[in-house]
Design a protein that fits this description.
Blueprint: H1 6-9, H2 14-29, H3 33-64, H4 69-101, H5 107-135
Helix pairs in contact: 2-3, 3-4, 4-5
């Protein structure tokens, strides 16, 4: 396992993040706002840690690992888009937190986050995640 392996850097796997988010979703669906708010707080710590590891450690290594100047440039553009998506996801997660505090969180907002997050994972899958898997990171 590489010293930059996400498993070493970040204990918050995609599966762990998804299970935390499911707890938020189900708690809102069942009207358990206090549980949803507490679970969302835990989710945000994990989500921020996960994205921070990607942004601060893995993205720069991924870009620099390009074999040619053209590949480095293409990866830099890909990472720029992934960082933009991270910002959008963080903003939407923040909106969920505000609505939870106000007692106004709803399934539609959570579903929107879940769909945006799935699209982001798809965007990472072909380039960045494939590289992580192939390089043992």
């Amino acid at each position: 396992m590489s010293p930059l392996s996400p498993r070493k850097l970040d204990p918050y796997s995609h599966e762990r993040l998804q299970s935390l988010f499911l707890l938020v979703f189900e708690s809102v669906r069942q009207g358990q706002r206090a549980i949803a708010s507490e679970a969302h707080g835990r989710f945000m710590v994990a989500f921020d840690s996960h994205m921070g590891q990607e942004e601060e450690v893995l993205f720069p290594v991924y870009v620099d690992a390009g074999a040619t100047p053209g590949e480095v440039e293409a990866r830099a553009r890909e990472v720029e888009d992934l960082r933009r998506q991270h910002g959008q996801l963080r903003a939407l997660a923040g909106e969920i937190a505000v609505r939870l505090r106000e007692g106004q969180a709803d399934i539609d907002l959570l579903t929107r986050f879940e769909l945006d997050w799935a699209r982001h994972d798809d965007a990472e899958a072909s380039g960045f995640h494939a590289w992580c898997d192939a390089s043992g990171r």
